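subagent[fold] <- orchestrator: predict structure for attached chain, return tokens only, no commentary.
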Amino acid sequence: MKPPFRADHVGSLLRPPELAALRARWKAGEVDAATLRHAEDEAIRAAVRRQEATGLQSITDGEFRRDWWHLDFLAQLDGVTLTANEGPKFRIAGASEQPPIATVTGRIGCSRPIMAADFAFLKSVTARTPKMTIPSPSMLHLRGGRAAISRAAYPDLDAFWDDVAAAYRVAIGHLAAAGCRYLQLDDITFAYLCDPKIQANCRANGDDPATLPQRYADTINAALRDKPADLVVTIHTCRGNFKSAWVA
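subagent[fold] -> orchestrator:
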């Protein structure tokens, strides 16, 4: 069978509690990166076995090496910095948490492979189709919009979008070189932009929500322009999820 498949796993699985606890200890400086990496490897092997036993033909690593489904990738692009979001918080069971915003502080580029080694490990532990999931190029824009893009680096947003597409072409090339032939772009923007609250936030950020879907589609197409002919690409969209709470 060849992808895309009728039954497919989106990408992110709940982190095993012991892995989440170890990641917290790593952040606190109590364990080293090699210890965390080994634990991630074992958790991914177990997740792969479970997906295979379920009968899935495409296999993901559950995104177990990431804090966030999108930010861990975006933050590795040149010119991107994660900044605190002072906006409304997600409130789950009395807790309050807010993912940071990918802020553009310099020219966007991809000077080194991003998550290619993670994909290579996944490919090494399954005989089925390993699937890589990465955020869509539009995810670098939606939340912060024009307000989160340096005007010194990008007085003209056309240049920003050109650089984003070029950086993604390089990043996708690195993944393809690692053996990736099934790539999922996670893109919440097309669903989010149906929500009047999201539209209002776009206007507050200095953008016109009516024009964004076409701009995002054009950038995705430009990002995929040089992909290998045998690399299958799918897009996942949703109205957002944070601990089972929808956003838009």
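orchestrator: received. Logging for downstream: Helices lie at 17-27, 33-54, 71-74, 116-124, 157-177, 189-192, 196-204, 212-223. The domain at 17-236 is CATH 3.20.20.210 (TIM Barrel).
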